[in-house]
Amino acid sequence: MDAKQIKQLEPMLNKYLRRFDDCFGRIEPVKRLKAYVTGQLSDLQRKSIEPMADAAGLPPRNLQQFLSLHKWDEMHMRDTLQQIVANEHRHPCSIGVFDETSHCKKGDKTAGVQRQWCGNTGKKDNCVVTVHLNYTAGDFHCLLDGELFLPQSWAEDKDRCKAAAIPKQMTHRPKWQIALELWQRAVANGIRFEWLAADEGYGKVPEFLFRLDDHGQRYVVEVPVIFTGWLVEPELLHKEHHGHRRGRKRHFPRLKAKSPSASSVKQLMLHSPVLRKIPWERFYIKDTTKGPVFWEAKAARFHLTRDGLPTRAHWLIIARNVENSKEVKFFVCNALDGTPLEVLLYVGFSRWHVERCFEDEKNELGLSHFEVRNYKSLRRHLIITAVSYLFLAKVHQLWRGEKSGVDGLPDSHRIFGDGSVSMADGKGEKNIVREDSWNHYIYAVA
To answer: Are residues 186 and 266 in the same domain?
Structure first.
């Protein structure tokens, strides 16, 4: 970044923030938003309210009241952010990624805090967990939305919820249900996801996949080794073929007698003759400091179990690390026949984008630095942080386009890298499949 670009930043930020003016009814909160976002974009070591207020020459109470008491519409701010992304960053290869992140906190007053699994520390710890939806489009990515995960113990304690200003209608919902709510809100605001991706924490719930499938949303979602289904569709009975039977009336359709039961994906990988006949294909995933990373993969048609019966044919994708064959991933996908395996792996391995967003928002914008206790303040902090990050993403994409890249590959920091997946030939050489190529595959199939 040169001096000329630095001088351009403030007018660019002012113009960007004016797009959110209709979220406010008075001029004071508009100024507080500018102070909050400027503080998040600054080089302060900690981006909590007090140091940001000091840097802006404001009493800390001003920013505290901006989050907790001032009347302004944070939901409209979130909708505006999503509409900006929908209108200005539409992309034929757009991918949405679900994931949650944790924020270590002390005490027991912050909304949703309790001892639970904390990804930051890698153990059970006192923390707040939020669920997020990422949007990835080529070299651009950002967070579209985020919501608090309310533990069951909080939902059952009405006094505790009241003290943290948690709305009465807000109940405990599993993370996959929160993820679906985030997706529905984004779609309502014009976001189009060609694909969705998520880790096995979401893929372990078949109902999550069925809901996406029922809405016609394509996905590539990682599933655990115990996920069950059939590689060969079992036969069904649709009516009774015998005379009158005594006892309880049987429901149809139902599996035929002696039909094989659904098997776990791990057992299918180890013992299924269908999968054994399919050869492994080698794919280049990315470059690291230790050299290129290659994975082998294969895919077969797969029927999920829904209400005890097989669904229509999906894809079961198995991928294993060439350097460590014990590192195996299983993905389920509802793509049409003919979709190349490169495309499915590209989507399945795109989850690093949301991890990158978490890393940037925590390290650069103070996502986890909030010191608020009530729910509204936390929700507003999440939305404003997403607004700040969108500004960074837009500036990065704009100025990155002015510089010559190295064959479109990710830079050394891997920020906004293209995450290419490619087929490797027999000699281990790699031919990178660019996004325009796999986009061509998608639309050729469609």
So the answer is: no
